[in-house]
Amino acid sequence: MIRVALADDQLLVRAGFRALLDAEDDIEVVAEASGGEELLARIHETPVDVVLMDIRMPAGDGLWATEQIAADPALGAVHVVIVTTFELDEYVARAVRAGAAGFLVKDTEPADLVRAVRAVAEGEALLSPGVTRRLLDRLAIGLREPDAGALDVLTEREREVLRLVGLGRTNDEIAAELFLSPLTAKTHVSRILSKLQARDRVHLVVIAYETGLVAPGWQ
Questions:
Q1: Regarding the domain delimited by 2-137, which CATH topology (the fold level of the hierarchy) does it fall under?
Q2: Taking the model in full, what pTM does it have?
Q3: 79 — phi, psi (to 5°)?
Q4: CATH domain 143-210 topology
Q5: What is the pLDDT of residues 131-187, one digit of tens each?
Q6: What DSSP string describes 42-60?
């Protein structure tokens, strides 16, 4: 079972998310909180795999709570997905820097939210398509000069996989495009993370840009 915690100051939103997720055979909502401080207390008491986190909350907003989770070794297995009404660039950039594994807006289709929980629990990074494009364009502004030599530790196939990660592809999409099994694609991504000492897939996206493997203005 994928154990989920909900952090949102609107009870109706939490109730809707709970009803949606608890209807799935492999997902269970095990904790709820209306603010960041309350959430941290809950997830220290009850182990969770994924947190669906609002940004604007009293007593510790979502970005602050995400930073606390990322900095706590005891919560190293917790994956945070920011789910908010506010699709603002500064929130996205801060969420990524804080350690969020995903960023979705609240008008996301219910089925996409469920898929997001499963993907993040498997170690994927997930951003709404429009959010992804603006985030990468924003990151590209401050990138270092390309240093392709940083990728010398990768095989040619791993470079191909990294390029597709940089373009926002999931493991399944990478597998289909390179005619690999999903397990092989996932193994390649894990090896790339280890070789480049990257903390997560979002970090791999930044590396793909910084090394010139993916160029600003990607299609």
A1: Rossmann fold (3.40.50)
A2: 0.67
A3: -105, 130
A4: Arc Repressor Mutant, subunit A (1.10.10)
A5: 555 555 555 445 455 555 778 899 999 999 999 988 878 888 899 999 999 899 999
A6: HHHHS--SEEEE-SS-SSS
Collapsed DSSP state (helix, strand, coil) of residue 4:
strand
What is the Rg, in whole angstroms, of the alpha carbon atoms belonging to the chain?
17
**Pick the residue with more confidence: 35 or 90?**
35
Q: Which helix (H) or strand (E) holds 113?
A: helix 110-121
- Tens of pLDDT, residue by residue over 6-57, are 999 899 889 999 999 999 999 999 999 998 999 999 999 989 999 999 888 8
- The residue extents of the domains of the chain are 2-137, 143-210
One-letter identity of residue 207 = I
Q: Cα–Cα–Cα angle for 11, 3, 19, nearest 5°?
A: 40
Task: Give the per-residue pLDDT at 151.
Answer: 86
Q: Please state, as a whole number, how many other Cβ atoms lie within 10 Å of the Cβ of residue 10.
A: 13
Task: Tell me the mean pLDDT in the region 72-100.
Answer: 75
Q: Do residues 44 and 19 make contact, with C-beta atoms less than 8 angstroms apart?
A: no
- Take residue 29 and report the two structure tokens written for it: 């909502």
Quote the Cα angle for 75-132-215, to 5°.
115
Question: Angle 36-45/62-71 helices, nearest 10 degrees?
Answer: 40
Q: Which CA distances in Å does 136 have to 69, 89, 106?
A: 24, 10, 21
Phi–psi pair at 134, nearest 5 degrees: -70, -35
